[in-house]
Amino acid sequence: MAADPTPARARGDRLPSTASTDGADASGRSWPPLDAPHERGGAPDGRRRGVVLGIAAAAVCAVVAAPLGALAVAGGPDDARRSVPTPAQAVAEEAEGVALHIAPVSATTIAAGQPLTVQVEIENATAEALAAGTLRLTRADDAIDDSDELDAWLASTGATDTEAAPDAVTLGEAETRPVSAGSNAVVSFTVPASAIAAAGSAPVLGLGAELVVDDVLVASGTDAFATSAAPATSATSVAVVYPLTVPASSAGLFDAETLQEWTSPLGLLDRQLDAVAGRAVAIGVDPRIIASIRVLGSSAPTSAVEWLNRLGSAGNEIFPLAYADADVALQAQLGLTDLLAPTGFGDALDPADFPEQPVPDDGGDGGEIDQTEAPADDAATPPPGETDPAEPEPTPPAPGEVPSTEMLLDWPYTRTDIAWPADDTVATGDLAVLDAAGLTTAILSSGNATVPGDQVGAAASIDGSTAVVADARLTAPLREASLADSDTEWRSATGRLLAELALDSGDSPSALLATFDRDAGEHSERVAATLDELAASTSTQSAGLAEAIGAPPTARALVDLPEDDARVDSARRMLDAEASVAEFSTVLDEPALMNDPVRRDLLAMLDVGWLGDRAAWDTAVTEWLAARRATTEAVSVVPSSSVNIFARETPLPVTVLNALPYPVTVIVSADPSNGRLVVDESVTASIPAESRSTVQVPITAGVGRGEVTIAISLTSPTGVPVGRTVYISGNVQADWEGLGAGILATAVVLFFGFGIWRNIRRRRKQRVAEAAEASEPGSPADADPQHEDSKSD
After folding, report:
1. Pick from 119, 254, 427, 632: CA 20 to 30 A from residue 653's CA?
2. Residue 100: pLDDT over 70
3. Which of 332-336, 455-459, 684-688 has the weakest average pLDDT?
């Protein structure tokens, strides 16, 4: 729950504190200063006289007035002023976390002239048991007629400056039993009507309580309640806004089981709708709830469909929050030109859930179907600020077709121009971004805008933009009441809310605005009870949100409250991760199947509800980013051992893993580190869903043999790198050197063979020439037969 902006409250009563005051009793006798020393061996004379006077006063009142109850000590209009432990007795550190809640037993206001039964709840939120002590009930001595006096009384909790603490009158004391760690105890007081009447006819009565354990003031608290003694005044117009949301999660859509649980009787959404439907409160609804039911079509749980119909006929003013209640102020501070929105729901739609509607039977006579419904009256439009009670379903899709994104998100909202940022998160320039996005009216917390005067309405003009600003004095107790853990705590907070309204007395020039916290849905029973108390109050007049927006605006200045830098940085990292997924999604034939759920989940991660638990959000962001990295690394090359290449041309086997639930298309490329291998082209391959496939990349051996490193990489069909590059070692052993040696040997053989052939041919020519010469007449061979014989030899 957001901190209480009321300076007098801020749930400070949960912290241990001390209070001191000097005063006099009704007879004028002065009490000893409370800072006087207190000794264990005995009390000073003044202290002893104070104790005696206190006992005497209690005895007299017990005789005159009715008993104050089994646990209480009587008190009356002449009661002695309260006496508390000395400031030297500081609050024990181990008591931190003890709180007191004060409220009438069965009402949130006080009826004048009647005895009052008051309950004081002791809440021990510490890890140790709280010992028995004394509980004192007090009331404000001075009349509370305006807001300043109310602030002074509420701020008196634990006051140590005696001049700053307003006077208080003791109404009774009671002994308390020990309170175990993490538990509560309730003490009842019965106060006579005369003790209340002494406060006069003020519109508000202040009640207080102090718990003393072992002479140490462990806890104190103050509350205020409207009374019936005040004269009737005009009612204050109050508009109330409620967020119909679910707890923050990383889910961009909810499954059927979750929706059935939430929309069944007493489920989260069922209880929320019961609390606000038909009551005087405007509803800001998360469109994710509506879309989650509609995408299921015929498979949606019956309870969810009925819940959706109930929302359509609720009659409240209804406007859409951002999808998944994504933080619009954070988006503006991220520098986005357009606010984020769902891009589609195709991945979640099953055509089988949207069957063709059967043609109604015309009775077999071949005639046209009898249309018994009366035509719609186009002129019967609801007045401004009211919701059309007609069936909220948009125009259905064509038979056999799934609905479009617009159909799934369509709803007859009262208005769609409202932005509701988280409390105290809007920075300078954010309103202009929201205006450009069509959200021309912003609901701001009180801390995000200045207050130019005491009495101003909700309507405001800030830097040229339209806004309605929640009233801090009403919003703080409203939220505390809606989140109360016990009946006493709820009556205490609701009583203070009605006290604020009783003091306003219709002085505000226009309607005021109060807003519930984003966590109010988990305490819907308190929401309904608080709204009913507001409706029953004579000091309040219900106003619509349209009335608050349409009132004459008051010029205000924006209080610059940008979001935490660490949160902005985390959101920017998620945006970058989404962009990486969008690039990677080009490996799919339909990239929207991957991009749409990522966008919806991103919006869920920006849910305003995460602001209440930053540690949980930081953890969720880390997990979300890890999941996105896992997505972009789901398609990769499987590393392999070294390969041996013996042939001149051979395919290189590359194994590609696809861990996605969709088939992908990738381009496999191989890049060798040197010329021993040559890769002429890449290979386009389709990998089935959740499988691995081997892709054959053709390679050619270059010149030489030896080691080579081959870089294997993947890209999408659009050229986006996919996964990491994997390096494979290769050993090239193709026979280029043997071929070269063969060629050289052939050349040598040819060379020497040619030489031998030439020699043989020359010898033959020589022999022919010699034979011709010998056969000519007159040759020496003819004249000398002996010579011829020797020659033949």
Report:
1. 632
2. yes
3. 455-459
Do residues 162 and 22 lie in contact, with contact meaning Cβ atoms separated by under 8 Å?
yes
pLDDT, the chain, mean: 80
SS3 content of the chain, % helix, strand, coil (to 5): 35, 25, 40
Quickly tell me which residue has 């939220």 as its tokens.
479
Tokens 């398609």 belong to residue: 635
- Residue 631 near residue 585, CB atoms below 8 Å: no
For the chain, percent of residues with pLDDT exceeding 90: 57
Which residues have C-beta within 8 Å of that of residue 268, sequence separation ≥ 6?
Answer: 246, 247, 261, 262, 521, 522
Lowest mean pLDDT among 479-488, 735-744, 769-778: 735-744
Q: Is 486 left (phi over 0), alpha (psi -120 to 50) or beta?
A: beta
pLDDT tens across 1-39, in order? 343 433 333 333 333 333 333 333 333 333 333 333 333
**Whether residue 371 has pLDDT greater than 90:** no
Adjacent-strand bridge partners of 642: none
Q: At what angle do helices 256-263 and 302-312 cross, to 10 degrees?
A: 60
Q: Which residue has the tokens 């105290």?
A: 424
> Alpha-carbon distance 215 to 48, whole Å?
15
CB atoms closer than 10 angstroms to residue 126:
16
Helical H segments across 585-613, by residue range: 592-605
Can you tell me the distance from the alpha carbon of 444 to that of 460, in angstroms, rounded to the nearest whole number?
Answer: 10
What is the Cα gyration radius of the chain? 45
Instruction: Please say if the pLDDT value at position 571 is more than 70.
Output: yes
pLDDT digits (tens, 9 = 90+) for 493-524: 999 999 999 887 666 778 999 999 998 888 88
**What contacts 516, CB < 8 A, 6 or more positions away?**
240, 241, 242, 243, 478, 479, 482, 527
Residue 263 vs residue 756, higher pLDDT: 263
Long-range contacts for 396-405 (Cβ within 8 Å, ≥24 apart)? 397/354, 399/356, 399/357, 400/351, 400/354, 400/355, 400/356, 401/351, 401/354, 402/297, 402/346, 402/349, 402/350, 402/351, 402/354, 403/294, 403/349, 403/354, 405/342, 405/343, 405/344, 405/345
Q: Are 107 and 491 spatial neighbours (Cβ–Cβ below 8 Å)?
A: yes
Name which residue leads in pLDDT, 786 or 17.
786
How many other CB atoms are found less than 10 A from the CB of residue 436? Answer: 13
User: 772 φ, ψ to 5°?
Assistant: -65, -40
Q: Using an 8 Å Cβ cutoff, are 286 and 535 in contact?
A: no
Q: Parallel, antiparallel, or unpaired: how do β-strands 691-701 and 649-658 relate?
A: antiparallel
Instruction: Read off the pLDDT band of 373 (50, 70, 90).
Output: very low
Q: Which pLDDT score is estimated for 704? A: 64
At residue 506, φ and ψ (nearest 5 deg) are 70, 20
Angle between helices 472-482 and 487-504 (to 10 degrees): 160
Alpha carbons 117 and 532: distance in angstroms, whole number: 22
Nearest to 423 by CA among 463, 465, 479: 479
Cβ(604)–Cβ(584) below 8 Å: no
Are 232 and 593 within 8 A, CB to CB? no
Q: Show Cβ contacts of residue 690 under 8 Å, excluding neighbours closer than 6 positions.
A: 658, 659, 660, 661
Rounded distance between C-alpha atoms, residue 495 and residue 478, angstroms: 10
Q: Which residues pair with 284 in a beta bridge?
A: 243, 319
Q: What is the pLDDT of residues 667-681, one digit of tens each?
A: 999 888 786 777 878
d(CA 204, CA 224) in angstroms, rounded, equals 6
Whole-model pTM? 0.77
pLDDT at 738: 55
Alpha-carbon span 564 to 425, nearest angstrom: 9
Tokens representing 389 are 């009670």
Using alpha carbons, list the distances in angstroms from residue 19 to 85, 138, 221, 319, 661: 8, 13, 11, 47, 67
End-to-end CA distance of the chain: 137
